[in-house]
Amino acid sequence: MTIKNAVIVYGSPRLKKSGSFHLGENFAIGLKKGGVSIEEIMVHKKNIKPCRGCFTCWTKTPGICVSHDDMVEILPILDNADLIVYAVPLYIYSIPGPVKTFLDRQLPLAEPYLVEKNGITSHPRRNKGKILKAFIISVAGFPELSHFDAMIATFKHLFKPHEERYLGEILIGGANQMSENASQSGYGELYKLIQQAGFEISQNERVSQSTQTQIEELTSFTPEKIKKYQNMANQYWDTFIKKDYTQVEITQLDDQPLKMSDGGNSAYFATMASQYNPNAFPGMKSILQFEFETDSYYLLIDKDICNAFAGSYPNPTLKIKSPEEIWMKIVAGELSGQKSFMDGLYTIEGDMNLLLNLNKIFTN
Ligand SMILES: Cc1cc2nc3c(=O)[nH]c(=O)nc-3n(C[C@H](O)[C@H](O)[C@H](O)COP(=O)(O)O)c2cc1C
């Protein structure tokens, strides 16, 4: 095993809440399982000044930068590492600015001389006894993987695949919600595969085809899924921008409100109605219809009051059609609501804003 020491560089300003952090920490679990010792660097927590371009680290004080900040401690860690893992979000087709600064400030690790290797000019490493290999983990808001092209080109130049220093990448598009706590339940399977990828890198310096394929199958977007994702993302942003809701005229039907003592699904919806928070969106008038395989329920929200009923309402604001088992797993946190929707496990008609805000509306 040639990889003994690895450094994981986390590059999101969302810190430990970020999607890239969740992936990086799972990759680290796999590396550790393979016997690799890990140092973690959270770039946005460090004081790292921009490179001044003075080349003092190449001339007057070889290997030492004029800026005395956190890079003073970080450079020896990088110098001693066999593997560096960048776990970073995609920002403007590239890496976030502070991560770029972190790369620039590694100049003292190189010598100024120009050498030619495999037909291309580069700078030799100051520490001749070490070879630093790299693995890249990145997430993006857009679903297509082509958005990562420029970022990956940069890392490949830096770590030169022909010298076998570039060990590969895991790229996940459409990943914005990976940073949200409420979504974590949907990623258990993916995180296990990421751990497996880390373990394989520790053993073979490559991720097996089987693990790569499984990650791709879980995270790739078909054209149809891209359309759904665009639609869902647009509605998601609208929930922050527009604070109002489709207001409907409420006509009370003759149905009797459900009570918790009714048991079964009736009790579930009566409980949900009792958790209605009238302060979430004051003055709200909406009808939320649920259709399971064999039975239907609706919640009628009329400003301060919310009641649940069995049956169907003619023009609901939002209709959720779901197998009962799927919906109950989402409620229990065993499935991600967003991912299940994208995977077509349930369908909706009407105002998706309502769906995306259910946890705000029913909180009491
Ligand atoms: C300043 C900024 C620039 C971004 N640029 C891109 C981009 O070029 N392409 C893209 O697909 N997503 C872009 N995004 C979205 C992020 O990549 C996305 O939200 C990602 O999931 C964040 O990951 P994190 O949770 O690890 O921070 C950008 C986000 C920000 C804040």
TrEMBL record:
Residue span(s) of domain NADPH-dependent FMN reductase-like: 7-105
UniProt source species: marine sediment metagenome
Domain SCP2, first and last residues per copy: 284-362
Identification of the protein by name: NADPH-dependent FMN reductase-like domain-containing protein
Keywords: Flavoprotein, FMN
Pfam families, alphabetized: FMN_red, SCP2
Entries under InterPro entries matching the protein: Flavoprotein-like_sf, FMN_Rdtase-like_dom, ISF_SsuE-like, SCP2_sterol-bd_dom, SCP2_sterol-bd_dom_sf
Protein's UniProt keywords contain Flavoprotein: yes
GO molecular function terms attached to this record: oxidoreductase activity
